Amino acid sequence: MSYKYQPEGSHFINGRYVEDTTGAVIDVIYPATGEVIAKVHEATEAVIEEAITSALAAQQAWAAMSGTERGRILRRAADIIRERNHELSVLETHDTGKPLQETLVADATSGADALEYFGGLAGSLTGEHIALGDGNFAYTMREALGLCVGIGAWNYPTQIACWKGAPALACGNAMIFKPSETTPLSALKVAEILHEAGLPAGLYNVVQGTGKVGAPLVTDPRVNKVSLTGSVPTGRKVYAAAAEGMKHVTMELGGKSPLVVFDDADLDSAVSGAINANFYSTGQVCSNGTRVFVQKGIKEAFLNRLAERLQGAKMGDPLDESVNFGPMVSAAQLAIVEGYIAKGKEEGARLVAGGNRLDQEGYWIEPTVFADVTDDMVVAREEIFGPVMCVLDFDDEDEVLARANDTEFGLAAGVFTADLARGHRMVAGFEAGTCFINSYNDAPVEVPFGGSKMSGVGRENAKTAINHYSELKSVFVRLDACEAAF
Ligand SMILES: NC(=O)c1ccc[n+]([C@@H]2O[C@H](COP(=O)([O-])OP(=O)(O)OC[C@H]3O[C@@H](n4cnc5c(N)ncnc54)[C@H](O)[C@@H]3O)[C@@H](O)[C@H]2O)c1
Ligand SMILES: O=CCc1c[nH]cn1
Question: What PROSITE patterns is this protein classified in (predicted)?
Fold first, then answer.
């Protein structure tokens, strides 16, 4: 039987599709209908070994090329992605269920931005000269780490494949990328396009599988760096395993971020911020501001306007570009979200919108809002990773800042206020890596992205990502005689 989006092979290694049917079968399901659209096989030991040896064979020559040459290939790949944006977005929609309205602007295009940005930076990576007196000096050389492993979550498959691959390749590394087993298709296209753009074979390999494939990649002594996007429990395991081998890490993990709305905020703008912070990608965004603290003076106006604006949420065929709210990614994620909604009701939160699963094929649930949520409720403490907004009340700035920070997570935080001085005071106090004033969930490639506390280690994007995919070698040069005590 052939499937609608069946790739030529499950894996992409050494510049070509590779298959090993002895690996466990993974069904790829279109979340909007439950239809199986492809089947891939989990990587076997032999497949993993081929991915590692071909990457190692290619990496040194790649690192020896000039940054400008490397960058040219990445920028060419960005151009190809943009030319094929529609086709790639349709695939991403099938991989994830996210509406085409979104994938057309936020997925392949975000991947292309990363390839273009890091392609542009590649030629400017340098060390520095350090004068030491008496004519002596030192210099630093920026060197590639070697073999990097990228492990992805299922919410932004193309974006994650590129956010990790682009800086890794720009710095002269090879990358083996393991997508989430839930969304294995888009990363294969990224690999195919990189090679079409001229990337030498072996430098960006994709292997499929669950944590059973991720774990041996993380511990393999030939791997120098691991970048994970995933949940905190997985991050704990992967970070610990990588530390055993003293590997470089980037951990992009989960959150339960606060969004604070003061009563002087522009109401519609704040409601837009709350919608973007909770319902984009059907709530499956790591940085979502799911604890929406609303100052008591505007609470009812906020909830009324939110209820009106929710009438504009359109569920339906995700390929219809007027649809703006898709299904959950999987039956498992839908069950998790339903469990949290039940918990919220049980704990006494007031359900003011949604809460129901749609009685149809696929993994559909309405955008859901709880009001009168208190800090101790499970729905206010745990990451739900679905379209469930919790609205909490507050009186003043000091109180809300302390409550916003009262969480083990620290990925993001936002504030809506007409008083910009207060906005800056709030973000100075937030214990979070990525903050927003009068906006929410923007993620341009030029800006560092990542979390504090349990939400992660390191940053993706921006110039700072270069520091996470390269290391400095210091060279001391003595021009006068070298002396010793004896
Ligand atoms: N901070 C960010 O940038 C960011 C972005 C997107 C998603 N996320 C987070 O990701 C989570 C949702 O994604 P998910 O359900 O795919 O996360 P997950 O933690 O279940 O899985 C993430 C990836 O890790 C792999 N994995 C699992 N166990 C492993 C192990 N022992 N060794 C190596 N790899 C292993 C999985 O196969 C998958 O590819 C949420 O918590 C969300 O907040 C964070
Ligand atoms: O899901 C996390 C990363 C992200 C945030 N906004 C867009 N992508």
Answer: ALDEHYDE_DEHYDR_CYS, ALDEHYDE_DEHYDR_GLU
